[in-house]
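User: Can you predict the 3D structure of PAS domain-containing protein? Sequence below.
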Amino acid sequence: MAKSKKTKIHKKIDGQILQMNKQFSNLKMKQKDKITGWVYEEYKKYVTEHDKVPDLLADEQIVEAVLDKINEAQIWIPDEEIYDYYRRKKPQLQKRLDNEKVIKFKSYVSFYKSIVDQDRATVVICNLKHEIIYMNPAAVTSYAKRGGDKLIGRSLLDCHSPESRDKIQQVVDWFAADESHNIVYTFHNEKQNKDVYMVALRDESKLIGYYEKHEYRNSETMKPYDLW
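Assistant: Sure. Here are the predicted structure tokens for PAS domain-containing protein:
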């Protein structure tokens, strides 16, 4: 049996004949695309400004902002249709926003990694189990006789005396005691004329690991802007 078409209900408002039971699906594709964009734009704006998923009151504010744009564009659609559309799409809006954040973060990772990789000082990053999880090229070269990049995955403590191991653990415990505890001067290497520090690594305020920071005191030998 053929499905009957929905009866259109019209009303004359301000000289215009408007379909009162018009649905979102009845809109032209360009109109749908505009509204979809406005909905996401307002949702993203709220989450970015408040750093939280909108509650019911915020949902109304978001939809009202979208309705203002719809009216400015002179697109006719019953308000309730936009409320329904927003409620259906809200989970997808948050998923889209989360995916954008992940993509944005990944695009930054290459920048962060490049900063570490281009450092002429050795950088060895460890997790809280003291496992070496990353070595920059300078570290791989510097520790070549000890295994170079084969040290990744091994314990940093294996490379130190019992006394040094205790000191490393004391520093890590100090890092964990307060989120303001982030850097400790450990020693001066006279032969290489550098100061050495242990630095806390955090995800927001949570301690996730540490690395050894080397600051050389020798004067630079390169000529300024020597590009040739």
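Residues 17-112 form one domain. The longest strand covers residues 206-216.
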